[in-house]
Write a structure and sequence with these properties.
It is a single chain. This protein is α/β, with parallel strands linked by helices. The protein has a single domain, classed as 2-Layer Sandwich (Ribosomal Protein S5, domain 2). About 40% of the residues lie in helices and about 20% in strands. β2 and β3 form a beta hairpin. The relative contact order is 0.21.
Length: about 130
């Protein structure tokens, strides 16, 4: 597992599917190469002081280290965007949050591949459109 370091990779992941939780948001994107899974971490200045942001980043890094590799899909980039709640939230709870977020992202990717990403809406029939 490698780290994301280039801004372009972070921006590319931000346009892909995402899964939000109370302590962080997970963004992902599929790559067309055969490289390993790459993970990036970011925390905005709105979250708090530099010390707090670094602490959140360290917690997020540790989550990914303890996560089983099978949870992350090969040839994908993941970005974890930390939130302030990551400072107080229990580590075990955050690990479960990350597993469920990755599961939701995988389901979303499966729906997009099968073409069922959005439910189809039938148009309104002309009979129902006129006034009585």
């Amino acid at each position: 597992m490698d780290r994301l370091k280039q801004r372009a990779d972070f921006v590319a992941a931000s346009s892909g599917p995402r899964s939000a939780g109370p302590a962080f948001t997970v963004q992902s994107r599929r790559r067309d190469d055969t490289g390993p899974v790459r993970v990036g971490f970011t925390v905005t200045k709105k979250v708090g002081t530099a010390t707090e942001r670094n602490r959140i980043r360290r917690r997020l890094r540790e989550l990914v280290k303890r996560l089983d590799v099978i949870s992350m899909r090969p040839h994908h980039d993941y970005v974890l965007v930390g939130r302030r709640a990551a400072l107080e939230r229990g580590f075990a709870v955050m690990l479960d949050d990350l597993r469920s977020a990755l599961t939701r992202l995988e389901r979303t990717a499966g729906q997009r591949q099968s073409g069922n990403a959005f439910p189809t809406v039938s148009p309104i029939s002309p009979e129902r459109n006129h006034e009585t």
